[in-house]
Amino acid sequence: MTSTISLRVRLHLGEDIAIGPGKVDLLEAIQRSGSISGAARELGMSYRRAWLLVETMNRCFREPLVISLVGGRHGGGARLSDVGEQVLRQFRRIEALARSEVETGMASIQALLKH
Prior knowledge:
The structure is a single chain. With 115 residues, this protein is α+β, with helices and mostly antiparallel strands. 56% of the residues lie in helices and 13% in strands. It is built from four helices and four strands; from the N terminus they run ββαααββα. The strands form two sheets. A two-stranded antiparallel sheet has the order 1-2. A hairpin with a 7-residue loop joins strand 3 and strand 4. The protein is elongated and about 60 Å long. It starts with 10 loop residues before the first strand and ends in a 5-residue tail after the last helix. 16% of the residues are buried.
């Protein structure tokens, strides 16, 4: 039997999860697709769910992380703000640092597991 380590980093603001792995995945998908609906499709979630997650993030931060673009001939879209890009980069950096520290620290405990 193999062992695995699971780590989920989240930042709470009151009752809300301001940012966490799922929201960061959504930010990355919006960055790739250029829209909330495209990101929702990519991640297999409803547009409504994606929109609610974006709304929560935008409400929790001083500046919105996602900016909606007004429709035109080719429709609207969405993009990350400068703050959104900064939060995305920082979160992934923190997540990698935390994973590295936890894996290093857990190695001694894993050595004591049944094989």
